[in-house]
Design goal:
This protein is mainly α and about 450 residues long. It is built from 16 helices and no strands.
Length: about 450
């Protein structure tokens, strides 16, 4: 074996190690995110803590609000302590927060646990994506991130099985104790996960970064120019100058509706399926099928967007999503319902990502990061609103309207992203970093 071949093999092994560790971390992230929705039907039926549907919706929003905080602060904290340390902190936080839920004796303490878990969940995903982007082999960043994103939906599948196997015989607390187990993964991250090359370079630890990059034949990232507060403010104002304000608002509204739909359905799918007359076991099976669809969708959407254009795929995906979600309000034969749930998962879980791709394509290279970041941030408010909305509808005795309301959110996102795409005359070339847009999700 030649020297260059040996180096390439070592580089591939390092990339595989980093992707594997990050995949497991995101798997635990998905488990913790979806576990609340999986145990929620049991909590409501047993009236745990005297919980009502509207309070259940509030609890779902606590986690998504925490995710908003975590996502907004992750970049700043990672720049201070490093990507590796932040990943470890996030895994530790959402694991301990699940422990708080498991031992909680009141709704307030349970809500605190879900809020803290959300902070950890919101900070982990963009940090993990940054890590695998650093170490992915050249030309394979997009597919590597696509594989990483499947872990989140695999965690959703795992949450359904945890609920099915443990909640009835051992109680709902056992499900949250399972979500504490990722603490055992922290020593593995400490020992095996290397620090981000981008962080080492940015912190001036050039020798350390150069040695690591050379040892494993990984490309050393360039030193990025540090933006001042004035630069960031000017980039934000650019989103509203020259008539761009309407385009920006359309993107923000599309993102709001998209994440309302994503997190509303993720929280309430089992419960709403119960209101449609399905047994609890079947309702949890739908969670598995829904997330299997999400895995397929993440791998398909990017290829479809490359061929037909991200704006068009985003609008079409939301149209199919709205139709699928609406059909779930109709009691159909089990086989048909399962197929509809799967297809809804395929389109729903990747439609939002296509909004970010659209924003990136329609933005100038110098303003792309700001445009995508703010579109994601505005969408996060929809993520907070979605679980709350489902709770309010159930509390008012309008559970049948739950799927209809979420379907309307899909229609609104289809309309907003469609109008924005039609209005845009500029189509600058997307940067090579476009594949990182899934971090905003």
């Amino acid at each position: 074996m030649s020297s260059s071949t040996a180096l390439s093999a070592r580089g591939s092994k390092l990339a595989l190690l980093v992707v594997g560790l990050c995949w497991l971390a995101v798997l635990f992230d998905g488990l913790d995110m979806f576990i609340y929705g999986s145990v929620l039907p049991h909590l409501l039926e047993t009236k745990t803590f005297g919980i009502t549907p509207d309070e259940a919706g509030d609890l779902g929003s606590y986690a998504t609000f925490g995710m908003l905080v975590g996502a907004l602060t992750a970049g700043t904290i990672a720049d201070r302590i490093g990507r590796k340390q932040l990943m470890i902190a996030c895994v530790t936080l959402f694991s301990l927060a699940s422990g708080i839920c498991a031992v909680s004796g009141s709704l307030a303490v349970f809500g605190l646990g879900r809020t803290l878990a959300g902070v950890g969940l919101g900070g982990l995903l963009p940090t993990a994506i940054s890590m695998v982007s650093d170490y992915a082999k050249g030309g394979r960043v997009a597919i590597t991130i696509g594989v990483l994103m499947t872990a989140h939906h695999a965690g959703g599948i795992l949450s359904a099985y945890v609920a099915k196997w443990l909640v009835d015989p051992f109680g709902w607390r056992s499900a949250f104790w399972v979500c504490v187990l990722p603490l055992l993964f922290v020593p593995v991250l400490l020992k095996l996960l290397p620090e981000s090359l981008s962080f080492l370079v940015a912190k001036g630890r050039a020798e350390e970064a150069r040695a690591l990059a050379g040892r494993y034949e990984v490309e050393l990232p360039a030193v990025a120019a540090r933006k001042t507060a004035a630069d960031r403010w000017d980039a934000l104002l650019d989103l509203f100058r020259g008539g761009e304000w309407l385009q920006t608002l359309l993107y923000w509204l599309a993102s709001f509706g998209g994440l309302l739909l994503v997190y509303g359905v993720a929280t309430w799918l089992p419960t709403l399926m119960r209101t449609e007359g399905y047994e609890l076991a079947n309702a949890l099976t739908f969670v598995v099928v829904f997330n299997l669809g999400g895995i397929v969708g993440m791998l398909v959407a990017g290829r479809a967007a490359d061929r037909f254009g991200a704006p068009r795929i985003s609008a079409i995906w939301f149209a199919f999503t709205a139709a699928g979600v609406y059909l779930l309000s109709v009691h159909m034969p089990m086989g048909v319902t399962t197929l509809v749930v799967f297809l809804t998962g395929v389109f729903l879980n990747s439609a939002q990502t296509m909004i970010y791709a659209t924003v990136s394509i329609r933005s100038t290279p110098g303003n792309r990061a700001t445009a995508v970041g703010w579109t994601s941030g505005m969408g996060r408010f929809g993520a907070v609103f979605g679980p709350w909305l489902g709770g309010q509808l159930l509390a008012a005795g309008n559970g049948d309207w739950g799927f209809t309301a979420f379907a309307l959110a899909g229609v609104s996102s289809m309309v907003f992203i469609g109008i924005a795409a039609l209005r845009s005359a500029r189509q600058p070339q997307a940067s090579s970093d476009q594949e990182k847009l899934v971090a905003a999700h």
